[in-house]
Amino acid sequence: MTDGARGAAGEVPVVEVDDLKVHFRAPDRTIRAVDGVSFKLYENETFGLVGETGCGKSVTARSLIGLLPIPPALVAGGSVTFRPGGKCLQCGGLGCAACDNTGTAICFSCRGAGCKECAHSGRPAFDLLHMTPKEMRRIRGIRIAMIFQDPGKALNPVLTVREQIAEVFYQHRAADLLEGVGDPAPWLVRRAAHQRSRAGEHILLRIPPLRSSYSRLRRRVDEFVAEALSEVQIANPRKVMDSYPHELSGGMKQRVWIAQAMACDPDVLIADEPTTALDTTVQARILELIVELQQRHRAAVLYISHDLSLVRMVCDRVAVMYAGRIAEVGVADEVFRNPLHPYTRALLSAIPSVDHQRGKLAAIGGSVPEFVDATQCCRFNNRCAFAQPICRSTDPPLNAAEGTHEVACFAYEKAGDWEAREQDMPSLDDSRMLT
What we know:
Order of helices and strands: HEEEHEEHEHHHHHHHHEHEHEEHHHEE
């Protein structure tokens, strides 16, 4: 469902990206990796972000959870508004002044009644681009989680599966862990549940009278880890918990990482090409697992890929990204059935099919440019067969072209709105699309 259709239904986006700009500084230039990206992500939907390597997909995703290397990265503008649900971020569900002792996340201004600041959602609104590292740690991993492309590199090779998944519970669900210890839990055990124990305290926790409480805490952690592994369909999770990453297959490592990402029931799951490093049969199983978990937890999924067939299969809406900008966005079926932007048409035409003449494959000429200045033009004009003078001098906006289907192309604009001549406006002709 597109932004317009969602808005008509009265739904409020969980994540709203508005004019996001991320630049990378080099000694002699500044690369505008993401330059004015805007989109909305709704609850219980899968939103696909597709495009060529280097178009800014992963940089966009990493900016949402503060994983950009700063410097050389620089957030040059825009906002990313996040409206979390579930437990209060301040108290973790225990109840505090910020949530009126309800334990749930509510808007600071209207106390959950709904107002202009929270878009009448009753949820708090946070700008993810301007949060301190401490504030971001309250969101990253619990309310927004990420599945990385290569689980072999994402997992720590010197820690067991138990230790790596348990860290999520220690950091974000300490209150739930302490429920199984007893009330009140000893002070040193509470510190251990938050991973704040020092070297000497670890020794005290292993001798009476703290040993029994600490043992209950560790058993509670093991139960949580085993449950997380079972949810991602790992057989014999108690055995896998004691394994190191190098002892697991690629598919098993990806399942472990998904278990870690979904452990705290996040509102948003970012999947950055989660099946690229896997073979075809394992890819299908991992995709089915992500879809199943998304439906079970009602999480919003931002799915990043350059594989158009996978995106069409799993995504509700899709945005086509090119050179740091979004070229087209709409319902996945509409975008693939009736692509509007010349770049989207060229991408789909370049996919081999039974209709292609043997020995000949369509290709998009040229390469993605590096935008190192603020030149106003269509990013695709140097590779587009339909480019006209206006495309080389003006940046096309992303506007609705057919219903809720949006596209950034002057072929769908009126010459009068831009004080241009008709002959200076592009006209699409499929016979000239590819070289």
